[in-house]
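Ticket 4471: requesting a sanity check on a complex prediction with nicotinamide-adenine-dinucleotide. Repro inputs:
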Amino acid sequence: MSAQPIGLFVAGEWRRGGGRGELARVNPSTDEVLGALTVAEVQDVHDALEAARAAFPRWRATPAVERATLLHKAGAAIRARAPEFGQLIATELGNVLPAATFEAMVAADVMDWSAGEARRIYGRVVPSRFPFTRQTVLKEPIGPVFAACPWNMPLIFPARKIAEALAAGCTVVIKPAEETPATAALLMQVLHDCGLPPGVVNMLFGRPDMVSRTALVSGVIRKLSFTGSVPVGKQLAALAAPQLVRCTLELGGHAPTIVFDDADVDVAAPLLAERKARVSGQVCNSPTRFYVQEGVYERFRERFVAALQSVRVGDPLAGGTQMGPLVNARRLGAIEAFVADATAQGARVATGGSRIGDRGSFHALTLLDEVPDSARIMREEPFGAVAAMQPFRTLDEVVGKANALPFGLAAYAFSRSARTLHALTEQLEVGLLGLNSCNIAAAETPFGGVKDSGYGSEGGTEGVEGYLLTKYVAEGC
Ligand code: NAD
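Returned structure tokens:
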């Protein structure tokens, strides 16, 4: 157990104690208390907002190359401390150590990409229709940003929001998830050690609704960047609306995963099992709704079950483990409820189906077979180590099923037919589409959903663009 509680970071200084409340941090593998986390008071939120407001004029005036240099420095520092980040992520989230360490490499990559983007924030000169007039389009930072993130990628999400905002010249008040604060706190320390000026990034933890409400109605914040569930995203968008705070909302998903008769099943099944096991299925773009064409249904299920059963589940810090626990008892209960509901409605457990042991939040990788559309898992995001499968006959039928839900984040499809893949590209209502591939996220590509999965993108050239305003200047002489 760490000696002192994890603090808040406001105006370049750590805050803890002083009569503030604390939350317990729990290890999801053992149920043991890891330590404590400081809970922000309303005054801490006001102080963080004031710090971000006060730091903004100087940070926006800092030359882009200097902002880029700081981000590159942070990227190098994250890379150098990847083993430390990995230990923290594996301990407080329960992701397996190699993947947790790799998360640090991805976060470093995001820092470098955003640093490059900072140097490419170009405006343009538009040929004028008026004599002796120059028409210029300028890009400017939008202003102080409020960001909130979930726990399932405890380093990448805060790193990406901070990197893109800083690249654009914005300052930040961020509230990472209370489940995984040590990872976020180390990121904050790394940025501070790299020379980030006080107030440019401020980090709070505590009562999410109080922090978000105070920030969004303050009049200080000009941009909301939120990653999390659909209901919370909608609440925050509503709070942002009266002030016309611009939003990027990266919300939940329920990825249709379509396997056609002509797919290479021997490639698709193990690939999808590996993706399903990532972060114990607690990934917004995890493959969740499996629609498999009738001709290949039995063969795919056999290969997929074998691949799921080969995943070694256990202590995320132990060598050879491929999947750890769910993040907490709440998610464990949610997955158990999805399984109970589906089986009560006639679904069959093809593998897994229950909790593992009675210590920690471990659940077996589970495949529910022949799941009826009425089952909750075919409509609600499961966000855990469970997949649901049912057969389909035709392309039109499966496109209809894929698009039937309000979610529109990711979809995957496997087929050797160019015509089929083209039709899916045209017709699927998603922001991310993997065709014979699951590689739908990288620093240099845009990530985001449509419909209830949100709007706006992070990553790619779109990421930094989301933190910029457009100003048009007509200059006569
Ligand atoms: P969540 O919405 O409960 O929490 C996300 C963040 O919002 C956390 O920081 C939390 O403290 C805060 N929050 C919670 N309730 C709040 C409230 N009433 N007001 C203000 N803030 C509040 O989501 P979660 O359970 O932590 O994460 C899982 C969800 O996140 C899933 O739906 C998943 O699909 C989604 N997600 C989406 C993406 C994406 O890029 N689209 C990525 C990862 C996770």
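Notes from triage: The CA atoms of residues 51 and 199 lie 5 Å apart. Leaving this open until the requester confirms.
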